[in-house]
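Troubleshooting log. The previous structure file for this entry was overwritten by mistake, so regenerating from the original sequence record. Sequence copied from the archived sheet and checked twice against the printout by T.R.
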Amino acid sequence: MSPSNKDEGHAPVGASAGAFRQEILDVLGRLLRESTLDDLRIAQILKAAKVSRGTFYFYYASKEDAFAALLDQVYARAVPAFEALFADPATRRPEQLREGIAGWLNFGDGDAAVFRTAIEEWPRHAGIREIHLGAQRRLSGAVTKRLEDERKNLTSTLGVPAATLGSALVWTLERAWYEAGTDADSAHGLADLNAALAATITSSIYGAA
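Regenerated output below.
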């Protein structure tokens, strides 16, 4: 594609189209490691991605729209990995599950920035909200299924339906992880928090060790 086509906002075709679209998302993910989505400007994305404003807006209506596409990609990897921990007999036993959840929570810088941004932005933007809440429902569903399979009498013993407890555990995980990751005083203890969250979920499913 020639520079003049980029400046006029014409879309690249074939492999170039996918490359430009993905480069915008990759750059956005890198920039979010150092900035919030609210503070980030379109001009910063254009400069880092080396695309024109017309090219950006051909693919994405706004920076929030671009972030929703990035979030969808990250959740497409992360959510099935979480579900697999609870579905695979090799990883759903108490000790393995506890280690697996703690490891899953040990996000790399890129994914951590995306998750942090999703938590901040989902109440304000419909597209981000749809993706984030859909992911939360799937995470909750994975926990709920194990609760139902392992603790048949959960409602009678705790007075709490499995789905309610599964959802509460996942939302607690989200909030606790976010608060620890954004609080400079507690960020150094994030590994301990991840272990505690994993132990909480596992003990809720299998009972206290």
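The domain at 3-60 is CATH 1.10.10 (Arc Repressor Mutant, subunit A). Archived copy saved in two places this time.
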